[in-house]
Inverse folding.
């Protein structure tokens, strides 16, 4: 049930078209880029997993501050190591494609931002999120006082049931009002 | 199989089909989706055949097959369409280096190119080609021939650059077209086609712009309210996932940090109303200065147009004097916006508001210039119309003279003399071609100025900064002048106004649309190269977020404003008597009347005459006004009910929260009671653990709280239960006075200050 050799079967191709938001050319391009990441022996095995480091060498993901979270979220590996098969890769591209719906995007965005995978965005998650967004160097980071103020403001805005965390529905409620989200949450090969 | 069973089976098949159709919307893993898909497809295949038994089986099977083929065809067509979109790679490269806002300009450019290509197809296919293939060739009739006086210079480069000489008497301009009612074997009605294409251009553009606006408004999310979720949006939506370049990413990090810090500070400090009088005075002063400069530029254009009319009568003009008008207009468009920006420093607005003011002022500048230009042009047209009368008489006189001479010379009054040589006939001034030439010259000079600006302003600057940096006292790259940033709004406005000029001029110069298509094509490559080679990503990236529809709105406004002059001339001005497809008629739209009279069956004519009756038109207009009023009030009612529903949700949420707090106290009371009772029968059930797996996305979550000694009905709340909610049970009970309406939670949700 995976890719065989370096050619994508016609049936599989049409099934993938049915199941994702990608067009035929996009799927073929994804296949090409994915097989470029494989070494020679791996190319012949079906259903190979590509390790996270190699995925992160793709130029589209290299500069993304959330790249590791993205790999973790889309990975179906039993070891939780962020490695992706070709189908995981297609899932990733489909969720980030131009024609994906707002619900899909916000669902995956929520999971990407949920750093501790507990189903809600609490203060720790938000703090890690802000640190990712402000870069690695110390002079761009926010001080602890500013961080506290920022997180308070965010919770005030989005936490509707006032339990100190943002859950999926609250997140989707906030995101659905944003005019920029759909156009910025996009990765194209 | 019984009827009931068949119906049920059919329902199941339909459901499976629906599942197949929407399976990509579910956030499952690919494996699970594949399994589901294959199951569903197997089910459908197996039972679809069975359902076809009985009457109408062949028809059912045929229908199923056609549906399958149709879906496959649609998908292939979509694939083909996406493959046809040009320049995807280029735009993606720009996007990864500069972010999505710069790339949006190029997407807009590509969209314009597509629209112009369609307009070009119409004009070329329905007007130019028939005239070239089926009409009379060059040199056969006066309007198609260069007059004898101009013939020696007609091929000179300078004359051609001015669009005189051979250019003027070619398919590019209105004057070339013949007014024969039907031409060629196919009896193609050229004048009718010319008029219809002119009007159809506007109709098509209108349709396309409105359709794009509607699509954008759909995606954009309607009434979010400007400052509702500032912080949350900054957190969750500010990163641009298309960025693939580390330098751009660093810039983005810096700008996000700055914007966080700024909004934190803004939120903390109140409006420092320091010296509001000074600020007001400065703003009034700034507006006054800007109005003065707008007025000044308008007057300058008027003055230059008047001068160019004087020049028209002279022959010894320098290059500058010939092109003065176009140069001045383009220079104004270049110089004034930075001037406005400097004056706007006085006003001290928030950057987003300042940008809006700036765009509004540039818009007013361009509009004022264009309309002043038009009015001056109209003056010219009127003068030409007066001339025409005199020339008409003169040409008739010359014709009579020619015949008289001819018969005298040949002493033969019987034979009919051959017609006068076309290049000798006295020509009318042909105002339509003159107007067309003006627009073409304006467009061409606009193109030249834009390209030169990019070359000098961006490229030369980048070269100087890069190479002089080695031997200059201060760091050119970090300080002044450094590399340029891509000016999105200036470029988009330029594009919008260029399109406005094309719309205005296309009726008088059918070749103008072709020139524009070439211009957009070359612009795409040229500007993509310039951006990648000479520009740096913006330092401060704040998004004018609904900007896409803003520019479309501008385009729509310009479309209406360019429609006005063209329709006015079609309706009121008489066409020239000897050039163009409408020559000889009293008004241009007489062509339509003629067609109705001669080509359509008789009853259509009477039908149209009834329809054009004012007694019918006025009630129709009234009806439309009433419809607008009705739709307006319906939308107001919807907005109000929306607000009511929001308030209700808010109240329900607050009640929920208060009930939860109350439950501690209720629980405590129950505990006391229970202690009194002997067998602890009143003990409330232990709070059931509410485990939370990966939450399913629910668009309409409905929560049922298990009864904890308090009877709760099904409440509509926006938050699903989550583990954090277990805390209230371990806390000491809150104060008893927390009835609905007193809790701090009440005011919280509404208290976000608007930004």
């Amino acid at each position: 049930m995976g890719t065989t050799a370096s050619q994508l079967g016609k049936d599989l191709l049409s099934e993938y078209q049915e199941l994702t938001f990608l067009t035929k050319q996009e799927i073929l391009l994804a296949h090409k880029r994915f097989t470029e990441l494989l070494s020679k022996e791996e190319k012949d095995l079906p259903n190979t997993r590509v390790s996270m480091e190699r995925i992160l060498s793709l130029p589209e993901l290299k500069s993304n501050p959330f790249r590791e979270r993205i790999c973790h979220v889309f990975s179906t590996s039993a070891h939780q190591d962020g490695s992706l098969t070709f189908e995981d890769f297609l899932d990733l591209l489909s969720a980030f494609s131009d024609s994906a719906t707002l619900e899909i995007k916000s669902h995956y965005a929520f999971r990407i931002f949920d750093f501790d995978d507990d189903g809600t965005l609490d203060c720790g998650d938000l703090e890690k999120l802000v640190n990712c967004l402000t870069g690695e160097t110390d002079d761009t980071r926010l001080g602890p006082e500013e961080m506290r103020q920022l997180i308070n403001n965010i919770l005030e805005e989005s936490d509707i049931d006032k339990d100190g965390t943002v859950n999926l529905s609250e997140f989707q409620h906030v995101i659905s009002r944003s005019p920029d989200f759909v156009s910025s949450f996009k990765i194209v090969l | 199989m019984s009827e009931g069973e068949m119906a049920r089976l059919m329902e199941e098949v339909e459901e499976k089909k629906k599942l197949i159709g929407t399976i990509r919307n579910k956030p499952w893993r690919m494996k699970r989706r594949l399994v589901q898909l294959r199951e569903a497809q197997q089910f459908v295949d197996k039972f679809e055949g069975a359902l076809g038994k009985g009457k109408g089986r062949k028809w059912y099977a045929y229908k199923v097959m056609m549906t399958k083929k149709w879906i496959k065809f649609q998908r292939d067509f979509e694939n083909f369409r996406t493959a046809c979109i040009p320049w995807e790679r280029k735009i993606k490269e720009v996007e990864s280096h500069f972010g999505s806002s710069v790339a949006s300009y190029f997407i807009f450019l590509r969209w314009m190119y597509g629209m112009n290509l369609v307009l070009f197809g119409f004009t070329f296919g329905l007007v130019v080609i028939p005239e070239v293939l089926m009409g009379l060739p060059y040199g056969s009739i006066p309007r198609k021939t260069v007059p004898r006086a101009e013939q020696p210079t007609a091929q000179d480069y300078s004359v051609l650059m001015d669009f005189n000489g051979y250019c003027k008497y070619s398919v590019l301009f209105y004057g070339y077209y013949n007014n024969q009612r039907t031409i060629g074997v196919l009896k193609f009605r050229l004048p009718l086609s010319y008029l219809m294409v002119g009007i159809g251009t506007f109709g098509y553009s209108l349709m396309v712009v409105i359709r794009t606006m509607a699509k954008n408004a759909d995606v954009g999310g309607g009434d979010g309210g400007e400052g509702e979720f500032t912080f949350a949006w900054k957190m969750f939506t500010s990163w641009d996932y298309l960025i693939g370049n580390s330098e751009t990413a660093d810039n983005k990090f810096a700008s996000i940090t700055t914007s966080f810090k700024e909004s934190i500070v803004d939120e903390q400090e109140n409006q420092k109303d320091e010296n509001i009088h000074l600020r007001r005075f400065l703003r009034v002063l700034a507006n006054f200065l800007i109005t003065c400069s707008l007025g000044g530029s308008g007057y300058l254009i008027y003055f230059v147009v008047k001068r160019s009319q004087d020049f028209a009568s002279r022959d010894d003009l320098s290059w500058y004097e010939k092109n003065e008008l176009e140069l001045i207009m383009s220079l104004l468009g270049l110089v004034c916006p930075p001037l406005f920006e400097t004056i706007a420093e006085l006003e001290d607005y928030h950057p987003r508001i300042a940008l809006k003011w700036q765009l509004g002022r540039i818009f007013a500048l361009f509009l004022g210039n264009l309309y002043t230009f038009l009015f001056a042009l109209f003056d010219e047209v009127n003068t030409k119309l007066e001339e025409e009368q005199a020339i008409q008489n003169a040409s008739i006189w010359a014709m009579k003279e020619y015949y008289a001479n001819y018969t005298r010379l040949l002493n033969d009054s019987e034979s009919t003399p051959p017609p006068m040589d076309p290049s000798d006939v006295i020509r009318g001034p042909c105002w339509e071609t003159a107007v067309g030439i003006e627009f073409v010259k304006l467009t061409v000079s606009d193109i030249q100025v834009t390209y030169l600006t990019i070359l000098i302003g961006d490229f030369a600057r980048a070269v100087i900064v890069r190479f002089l940096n080695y031997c200059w006292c201060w760091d050119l790259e970090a300080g002044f002048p450094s590399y340029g940033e891509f000016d999105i709004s200036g470029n988009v406005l330029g594009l919008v106004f260029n399109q406005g000029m094309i719309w205005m001029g296309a009726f008088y110069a059918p070749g103008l649309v072709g020139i524009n298509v070439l211009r957009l094509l070359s612009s795409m490559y040229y500007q993509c190269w310039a951006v990648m080679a000479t520009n740096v990503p913006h330092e401060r990236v704040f998004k004018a977020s609904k900007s896409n529809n803003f520019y479309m709105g501008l385009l729509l406004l310009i479309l209406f404003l360019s429609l006005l002059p063209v329709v006015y001339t079609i309706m009121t001005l008489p066409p020239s008597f000897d050039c163009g497809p409408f020559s000889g008629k009293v008004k241009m739209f007489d062509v339509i009347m003629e067609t109705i009279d001669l080509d359509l069956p008789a009853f259509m004519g009477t039908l149209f005459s009834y329809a054009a009756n004012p007694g019918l038109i006025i009630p129709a207009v009234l009806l439309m006004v009433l419809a607008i009023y009705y739709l307006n009030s319906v939308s107001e009612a919807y907005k109000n009910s929306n607000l009511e529903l929001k308030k209700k949700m808010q109240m329900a949420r607050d009640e929920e929260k208060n009930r939860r707090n109350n439950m501690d106290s209720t629980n405590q009371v129950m505990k006391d009671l229970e202690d009194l009772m002997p067998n602890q029968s009143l003990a409330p059930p232990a709070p059931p653990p509410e485990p939370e797996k990966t939450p399913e996305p629910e668009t309409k979550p409905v929560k049922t709280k298990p009864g904890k000694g308090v009877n709760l009905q099904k409440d509509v709340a926006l938050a699903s239960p989550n583990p954090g909610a277990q805390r209230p049970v371990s806390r000491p009970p809150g104060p008893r006075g927390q009835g609905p309406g007193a809790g701090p939670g009440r005011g919280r949700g509404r208290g976000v200050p608007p930004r």
